[in-house]
Amino acid sequence: MAPPLQPLRRFREASGPPRRSLLAGVAALGALGAAGCSRVPTATVAGGGDLLERLRAAGVVRLGIAGEIPFGYIDRNGELTGEAPELARVIFKRLGVERVQPVPTEFGSLIPGLNSQQFDVVAAGMYVNPKRCEQVIFSDPDYQMLDSFIVRKGNPKGLHDYRDVVEKKARFATGTGYAEIAYAVEAGYEESDILIVPDQVAGLNAVEAGRVDVFAGTALTTREVVKKSSKAEVTEAFKPIVDGKPHVDGGAFAFRPTETKLRDAFNVELHKLKESGELLRILRPFGFTEDEMTDLTAKELCGR
Asked: What mean pLDDT comes out for the span 104-112?
């Protein structure tokens, strides 16, 4: 899970669906992965960076992940997976880098960790937004994301967007650091009235228990979490309103500002995957659909 509050998400600065849930027990793995990897001074912006050449020579790229399903996480077998790591495997192999190595961290530590060279690339489904674009450079998005609501079966209050939540005085919840906080506030909801829960699972529980009328999250995570619920359902995906206009978020890989050569080479391969349809094949096992495919660019989302 972004755009928005500080620190925002998931797709946001410290955001998104549970990015912390799978960090326990894997931090040590990340520390071991980082150990023994020498940190070298970053190349000048004018030169575009030499990281790609160094990665090819080393044969491995270190990926910063935040332990969030389905974006980048360690599974029950201790294996690195998620839409971003799987996509990274394909693209970096095409770029001549055979292996990917996870470096787990908190979502809010991804950009600082990248810029301090604790890892080489952020592979965590990070939303591209202007504030983050001041700190890192992004590939073009590999997916786009709309919002949707978890509501009681039948959607008794008829909640389809943030304006409905405000007008119908619905009890509203979303996740810690989620971009949806800002979206609800922009629609006129009092921030102090928002119930903040750890993640989408807690949000589902709150709706099922009747503590709130609605939980807001990304279309993908809400749709996945309600699959086994007999009491709740997910609404149709919709575009939140940002600065008075319908907004679509896009998630991408982040690179140090000096490493434009690597980012550009990554984009070339990403666009090939989009054109061939292979991108959807890679992302589909993680719940992504044709609706999440996008032609958005980082430039558009950075606002420049």
From this structure: 91
Only one residue has tokens 């989009």, namely: 274
From residue 53, give the alpha-carbon distance in Å to each of 46, 59, 95, 96, 107.
16, 10, 10, 9, 28
The DSSP bridge pattern shows strands 60-65 and 99-104 to be: parallel
Q: What does residue 173 show for φ and ψ, rounded to 5 degrees?
A: -135, 155
pTM (two decimals): 0.77
The DSSP-derived string for 267-295 is: HHHHHHHHHHTHHHHHHGGGT--GGG---
Decide: 218 and 169 in contact? Cβ < 8 Å. Answer: no
DSSP H helix total and E strand total for the chain: 12, 17
Rg of the chain over CA atoms, in angstroms?
Answer: 19
pLDDT tens, residue by residue, 62-90 = 999 988 889 999 999 999 999 999 999 99
Higher pLDDT, 98 or 28: 98
Distance separating alpha carbons of residues 105 and 27, to the nearest angstrom: 7
Query: Beta-strand (E) ranges in 147-197?
Result: 147-152, 172-175, 195-197
**Rounded to whole angstroms, how far apart are CA atoms 157 and 172?**
12
pLDDT per position as a tens digit, 243-301: 899 999 999 999 999 999 999 999 999 999 999 999 999 999 999 999 999 999 999 99
Is residue 175 over pLDDT 80?
A: yes
Please choose, from the candidates 177, 189, 190, 245, the residue with its C-alpha nearest in 3D space to the C-alpha of residue 217: 177
Answer left, alpha or beta for residue 183, where phi above 0 means left and psi between -120 and 50 means alpha: alpha
